[in-house]
Write a structure and sequence with these properties.
Length: about 500
């Protein structure tokens, strides 16, 4: 047993020793191989380094050569530029010398001219003094006398030329205007006959008057209070009269009375019901009238409330002319004129239709109908250029072409024969005002308004007003009439200057 153990120990020791020797031999070989490889790597690196250094040297030599060539080229260009600059500088110096020489010559010429001018002025003064001594007049007096002579000789030629130019221009403009207006009026076939808004209510019998008055006048008082008018019951057989400034209220009262007579029951409660029914009926009629007017002109997109107000014009008259029919006619004429003249047709149509919209409320709201119409159109969303038509149709010189067109259409509609009625008193007053304006100017002896106020003939004093002054006088009379008077259409100013010489042969 012990021998076996000892044998094992001896075997292990021998194996360990052999293994150690083997490892030492193998390690030495490995180290030698590694040193060889390292030496090879170092040798290869040194060779590559030498090659890189050589390539870098060659590249640097190449770059230096290229830089030298570029520097040489630039030096050559600089030399050429310096040569050109030297050449230009020499030319510039030559030109400067030339300019200096010319400037000296000009100075000499200027000095000579100044001396001659001074000498000429002196001689002219001497000649002027000699002429003044010979003529006995100084320079200012001679100038005035010469101008007076030229003016007197050329006055007739100037007047004739002015008249010729005015006649030619007026004739051409009038011909074109007549042609355009005739075409437009021909295409507008709206009736201009005015509808008479009657205030008379026919009764089936005179007994109805007592029923309308009622016990102690309670029925008629209720009617007047609800409608805002005055009902006149007089001795006129078979009718009663309705009095009031507002035509809508008068029409409302008339419809209410007619409804009461049809129903047969006339008492305050029934009167109130009849007035309410007449109001609803009248409101529907106004709306329908406004819509029909819009349809006739092909206008859309207007606020229904403004259309309702437009329909109120059906029950409004101006100088006997129905305002709604007048507005439709102005809108139609404005659209046709805008087509002929190349203006905005939509603005002219809408502006012409609503130009008198202020008259629908001028009995209820304080202010001129032009201002009221402008505020109404702005309130219901119409643009400024359309709302301005309410003001433009009463301005002497509207600011826009469309304003001039609407004003012209308004004048055409109002000046149609039979379109408007006027009282004898207003007619005579207008003629007197025209004659008064003409005779108020100096140099006028007499003035006569003829042709229903469409022409005024003015006779001037021939010793105070000459032909040239008469042209200015006619223009002044026309401008004064435009600024001070209100009239339909246009007024022709005809100035007459006549000189009569009477002698007797005995």
């Amino acid at each position: 047993m012990s021998f076996t153990i000892i044998s094992l120990f001896i075997g292990a020791a021998v194996g360990f020793g052999i293994g150690y020797v083997v490892r030492q031999v193998l390690g030495a070989r490995t180290v030698n191989s590694a040193e060889t490889k390292a030496q090879e790597i170092i040798t290869s690196a040194k060779r590559e380094e030498q090659e890189a250094i050589l390539a870098a040297k060659q590249e640097s030599i190449k770059i230096i050569d290229e830089a030298k060539r570029e520097i040489s080229n630039e030096r050559q260009e600089v030399k050429e530029q310096s040569k050109r600059l030297e050449k230009r500088e020499s030319l510039f110096e030559a030109k400067l010398l030339d300019v200096d020489a010319k400037e000296k010559k000009l100075d000499a010429v200027k000095t000579s001219l100044e001396e001659k001018e001074t000498k000429l002025a002196t001689e002219q003064q001497e000649v002027t003094k000699r002429l003044e001594s010979v003529a006995g007049l100084n320079r200012e007096q001679a100038t005035e006398q010469l101008l007076a002579t030229v003016e007197s000789e050329a006055k007739e030629a100037i007047v004739a030329r002015i008249r010729k130019l005015q006649d030619e221009g007026a004739a051409e403009i009038e011909e074109k205007a007549k042609r355009v207006l005739a075409m437009v009026i021909q295409r507008c076939a709206i009736s201009h006959a005015a509808d008479t808004m009657t205030t008379t209510v026919d009764l089936p019998s005179d007994d109805m008057k007592g029923r309308i008055i009622g016990k102690e006048g309670r029925n008629i008082k209720a009617l007047e209070q609800l409608t805002g008018v005055e009902i006149i019951v007089d001795d006129t057989p078979g009718s009663v009269m309705i009095s009031g400034f507002n035509l809508v209220r008068r029409h409302l009262a008339k419809r209410a009375i007619e409804r009461l007579m049809l129903d047969g029951r006339i008492h305050p409660t029934r009167i109130e019901e009849a007035v309410l029914e007449a109001k609803r009926e009248l409101a529907l009629e106004m709306k329908k009238a406004g819509e029909e007017a819009m349809y006739q002109l092909g206008i859309t997109g207007i606020d229904p409330k403004l259309v309702q107000i437009l329909g109120r014009l059906k029950f409004r008259t101006s100088f006997g002319q129905n305002v709604l029919q007048h507005s439709i006619e102005v809108g139609t004429l404005s659209g046709l004129l805008a087509e002929e003249l190349g203006a905005d047709v939509t603005v002219c149509k809408k502006g012409g239709l609503f130009h008198d919209i202020g008259k629908a409320v001028d009995h209820e709201v304080q202010g001129a109908h032009t201002e009221l119409g402008y505020r109404l159109m702005k309130k219901y969303g119409l643009p400024e250029k359309i709302a301005y038509m309410a003001i433009a149709h009463h301005e002497d010189r509207p600011e826009t072409v469309e304003g001039v067109i609407v004003r012209t259409a308004d004048a055409i509609s109002g000046s149609r024969p039979g379109a408007r009625r006027d009282t004898v008193e207003r007619y005579i007053q207008r003629l007197e005002e025209i004659e008064k304006v003409a005779t108020s100017l100096p140099g006028v002896t007499k003035a006569y308004a003829i042709q229903a106020g469409r022409e005024v003939r003015v006779f001037v004093t021939p010793t105070e007003v000459d032909d040239l002054s008469m042209v200015k006088l006619a223009q002044q009379i026309a401008r004064t009439i435009e600024s001070e008077l209100n009239y339909p259409g246009a007024i022709k100013v005809n100035c007459i200057r006549e000189t009569r010489v009477i002698e007797y042969a005995r």
